Every structure is written in structure tokens, then in C-alpha cells.
Amino acid sequence: MSEFFDVLEHRDPDAREQALFTALPQALKTAVERAPAIADQLRGIEVGGVHNRIALAGLPVIRKSELLERQLDGRASMLGVGRQQGYEINRVFGGFSTIGWGQALRVFASPGPIFEPESARADYWRFGRALFAAGFRKGMLVYNCFSYHFTPAGSMFETGAHALGCTVFPGGIGQTEMQVQNIRDLAPDGYTGTPSFLRLILEKADAMGVALPSLKRALFSAEAFPPSLQKWFADRGIEGFQAYGTADLGLIAYETPARDGLVVAEDIILEIVRPGTNEPVPDGEVGEVVVTTLNPDYPLVRFGTGDLSAIIAGPSACGRTNKRIRGWMGRADQTTKVRGMFVHPKQVAMVARRFAQVQRARLVISGAVGHDQMSLWVEVAPGAVSDDLRQSLVDAVRDITKLRAEIVFEQPGLLPNDGKVIDDVRSYE
């Protein structure tokens, strides 16, 4: 039996890169023609020339907040407007979808609310390979405890299981006693859902004196899955793995038996960018996960997830050859309020870009409530440090944020590699 979902997982990395960037220009052309929001995002850009990562990095990143804003504007501007061609694409999906009612099999709502379409394409969310890596195989029964209403999580795992030839029981959430009874009676091979809910089910089973020996594997998402919890399930005979995805993009990365990070999914282009900017960071540096998907129905281009992660060097020991990431490491949106004024990561980036001497910058907010203190820490080579540079940085911070900051010089490479551009360490006691 193959160790891989398909041959794409172990192909030569250069062949994968070539295939992705051969397909990308046409995908962008189609998206511009059919998705008004993508046409606006890429206005003035010759998409036929986007055939490598350098060219891709020249495209603007669009973040979730902007997607929500565009959807809200669509609903407001088209309120009361009669049905017409492209009505749902613009009013409901903000111009990011290329399909409307009839072509979309389902529509979901994630917090915002942000609406996402699902077409009838098999394994639309691409979770089949994550389930395969977690040990699910054709003919198994999958007990799916992700929600089946509003958000797409339940459908993500169900359609992925169907792609493997599995049968799915839609367990949903809540009613732990009934969940225990169903698992006892159905004897499913594996579980999909959050780790915390499976733990609740197993603890309820203990309290009821019911054994659930059929569960041997699990694919978790939506919550952290630390080694301590991994061991807790392993001690009960359940091998658990984690998958990382979003309601907008579907599967982004998944864990394998090698347990050496999360392998990036096929059919997407993943970048790690400095929060608040469009600029990719070097491999290993923590930044925001940005994804371009080749999904023809919902063609998001350089979509900023708001999640922090970092690229891990080298191939996985499991034999899969795609890039790996360290998994979810926090949120990139570090906007905070200082002395009554909002300060955004992009403002810190704007300051840093004014000075060739500055290699990295980090704004530290300290003090107690009502006594905010702001310091800009910058990595500068020792020979470039000067009082003139210090004063120029003070002036630039004031110009861009309307606030005063102290300047702290640090040697290159010494600022923490945690993806933070704004570090709020104030005391709220």
C-alpha cells in the first residue's frame, strides 16, 4: 500500500515549483476576468509575467479584514437591488468568488460574517491528503465531530473522507453521552474534530464505564495539539495528527507520521511575509502565512491569513518533498492602542523602509495603564549607529504614528524571531 495520497507529494521540488508557476498566470488571468475583487487587486499588473516567486512578491497582499470590508460593502451597496447576472458574486462574496447560486453546492459563514462558497468539485477543500497522512483509508468509518452548520469545517473533513472512499457519520458537537453511545455502537475507525472534544467524549465514556476500542486514529484541527495531549491520546491507543486550514483557503498544511512540522498542501503557493507588509521573509524567520490558491471557484491571491508561522529547512523524513512550516505560532495582527492612538504593524514597516541602515524593527509598548511608553528597537550594524540616525528615527515615528518613541539600537540578528512587529508588554494589573 502506498505511503502517499498521490504522486504529487513526493515529486521533485523543482518540478512542483515549475508546475505551480506554469499554472499560475492562466489562473490569475481567469480570476481577473471572473472575480471583480481580484481584478481590482491586480489592476495594472501584467499577470502573464507572474511566473516565479519574485514576481509573485510584487503583487499586493489582501488580508482577511479587507475581504470582510469588501463583502460588507457589497451587501450595503446592493441592498434592494434586483437579481441580475453576478448578483451573488458581488453582493454576497464581495467579488472574490467566480460562482453564484446553482454553481455553488453550499455557502458557509465564518466569523465576520465572511461568506465562502463550496462548489461540487470532489474534495473541494483538499483535506483528503491530510486524512491519508493521518492513517485514514478506503472503507473506514470516520466519526466527524466538526460542526455542520454555518462554518465549513464539517464539510471540509467529510468531503476529504469521501475522496478516500470512507463513510462518514456526522457527529457534530455537544451531547457527549449520545456521542459515546454512537461510537460504541458504530465502532468507527477514526475521529475528526477538535482534540478537546474527543477528550471530553473519552472522559465521559470512562464515567459511563464504556470502552471505545475501535478508535485508533484522529485528525485534529482548530485547536492547539501539544505533545502532552498527543501523549494523552497515544496512551489510549489513538494516534492523533493535526491539520491546518482556513475557511477561505481549505487545507494549508498537515502533519505526517514523521512529526517534523506541517507539510504544505499541494495546489497552493505559500509564502511567509513580514507582518504589515507584502515582503517575504527569509526561510526560518517567523512571519505571516500568505497563500495563493489555484481554486478556480474562489481564487484568492496572496491572501494574508493573519496567522504566524515559519518555514522549516529541508525535506520531511516521511518522504514528502513540499515545504514545511512550524505550524500555528500566533496572530500577525498586532494592532494596539497607545495613548489613545491605534498603532499598526504596517506603520512600523513604513518607518523601517525609510532607512537603509535598519534591517529589522520591533515596537515595544510598556508601562502601566495610563502611562504608556513606546520604544522602537531596530537592528542596525554597529558602524551605522549615530545620533543623527536616532533623531531621524524619532522624527519618522512621530510623522507616521503621531506618537513619540525612544530608539533602541540592537545588533543584527538579536531581535527575537517570533514574528512580532509590535510587542505589547504593558501591565494591566
TrEMBL record:
Coiled coil: none annotated. Gene3D superfamilies: 3.30.300.30, N-terminal domain of ligase-like. The keyword Ligase applies. Keywords: Ligase. InterPro entries: AMP-bd_C_sf, AMP-dep_synth/lig_dom, ANL_N_sf. One of its GO terms (molecular function) is ligase activity. It comes from the Bacteria. Pfam families: AMP-binding. The keyword Ligase applies. Residues 146-292 form the AMP-dependent synthetase/ligase domain. SUPFAM superfamilies: Acetyl-CoA synthetase-like (SSF56801). This is Phenylacetate--CoA ligase. The lineage of its organism: Bacteria, Pseudomonadati, Pseudomonadota, Betaproteobacteria, Burkholderiales.
